[in-house]
């Protein structure tokens, strides 16, 4: 499983980092980015939760 963050949509709210800080981190521009791909199976549920919770639909989890 992989994840992507649309930098044009991201507002830097940090919700994804709070929900899954091992999967998402903030970059130097204050936008979220994926810490690593592919996402380990043990972290997949956290990535899905962040995708669902993102207020601007900037996160896409790809199976």
Automatic annotation (TrEMBL):
Gene3D superfamilies assigned to the protein according to its UniProt record, in alphabetical order: 3.30.70.20
Sorted UniProt keywords: Electron transport, Iron, Iron-sulfur, Metal-binding, Transport
Record keyword Signal present: no
InterPro entries: 3Fe4S_ferredoxin, 4Fe4S_Fe-S-bd, Fe-S_cluster_ET
Keyword Phosphoprotein on entry: no
Pfam families registered for this protein in UniProt: Fer4_13
Domain 4Fe-4S ferredoxin-type: 1-29
Xref: PANTHER family: FERREDOXIN
Described function: Ferredoxins are iron-sulfur proteins that transfer electrons in a wide variety of metabolic reactions.
Protein name per Swiss-Prot or TrEMBL: Ferredoxin
Source lineage: Bacteria, Bacillati, Bacillota, Clostridia, Eubacteriales
